[in-house]
Amino acid sequence: MPPAARAYFGIAFAWTWTLWWTAAATGRSVAEPVGAMLYMAGGLGPLLGAAWLVLRSDRGYRRDFLRRVWDPRRIAAPWWWALVAVAAGPAVLGATVAAVAGAAAALPAYGVGAVGGAIAVALLAGFAEEPGWRGVAADAWQRRTLPAEAAIGIGAIWALWHLPLAFIDGSYYHALGFGSLAFWLTLLALVELGVLYLWLANGSGGSILIAILAHAGFNVAASLAPRSATGDVTAFVAITVATVVVVAATRGRLRDPAAR
Questions:
Q1: pLDDT value at position 9?
Q2: Is 231 exposed, middle or buried (0-12, 13-18, 19+ CB in 10 A)?
Q3: Terminal-to-terminal C-alpha distance of the chain
Q4: The pLDDT of residue 111
Q5: Residue-level pLDDT at 258
Q6: pLDDT value of position 260
Q7: CA 23, 24, 25, 26 torsion: positive or negative?
Q8: CB–CB of 128/164 below 8 Å?
Q9: Residue 169 forms beta bridges with which residues?
Q10: Cβ proximity of 216 and 125 under 8 Å
Q11: Nearest to 23 by CA among 171, 132, 126
């Protein structure tokens, strides 16, 4: 693992785990003010790690990095379609298969406030995380190995980063139940999504914005689609198949022209 990536992971984990494990150890819930503060502040660890590394880089890298975060002009038209497929495809396919199979599904609230809140939270999560995972960490790691290997390594660490949430009442991971099949499948899906997000970023000329939008879009789709066991399994299978196809089709290069 490159030194820059190790430094990024160290900062991200030190900040996030200090706050999240504090919330877990003190029995704080996301529904209460202190718990919510620890939860939201803890999620900034990846952004802080990215900012620290970017600020220590040369001016050229800093300027290009910022453009990669906010400039949509780097993203060619076909990659917008790929973004939609990665972000919304698994949830839509899962809900469709579940409906056809007649599976009982939990319907989320579709009020303006609920939908707007889901979108806002998802965008904040994407912006807080992706400049780190698919930004500075991927930039450093891809230079040393095949992009698919870097994406899997980063994805595994990204999944581990979420671990304290399993012990914080009110979080999505707590609701899954630590050690349950749904919990482990969710962590595995994060590794696979990490591959797909890096493929989107590389294919769109290094855009970090597309990874932010894919991350946010996936969370929104998962929040707003009817949920059922059948749908969740279908979505997981779709993510797995897409990951295998992308890695095989690109021979592990994930569209990175600099990959060996």
A1: 98
A2: buried
A3: 17
A4: 86
A5: 66
A6: 47
A7: positive
A8: no
A9: 29
A10: yes
A11: 171
pLDDT value at residue 18 = 98
Token readout for 88 is 């919304």
Q: Which token pair is 207?
A: 């855009």
Using CA atoms, how far apart are residues 112 and 115, in angstroms rounded to an integer? 5
The rounded distance, in Å, linking the Cα atoms of 236 and 214 is 16
- Give the per-residue pLDDT at 257: 65
Residues of the chain under the 70 pLDDT cut: 257-260
Question: Which structure tokens are listed for 91?
Answer: 């949830």
Q: What angle separates helix 229-249 from helix 181-203, to the nearest 10 degrees?
A: 40
What is the rounded distance in angstroms from the CA atom of residue 109 to the CA atom of residue 184?
26
Adjacent-strand bridge partners of 106:
227
Domain chopping of the chain, boundaries: 3-249
CA dihedral 125, 142, 85, 212 (to 10 degrees): 20
- For the record, the structure tokens of 21 come out as 């494990």
In single-letter form, the type of residue at position 38 comes to: L
Q: What is the pTM of this model?
A: 0.95
Q: Which of left, alpha, beta for 77 (phi over 0: left; psi -120 to 50: alpha)?
A: alpha
User: What phi-psi label fits residue 42: left (phi over 0), alpha (psi between -120 and 50 degrees) or beta?
Assistant: alpha
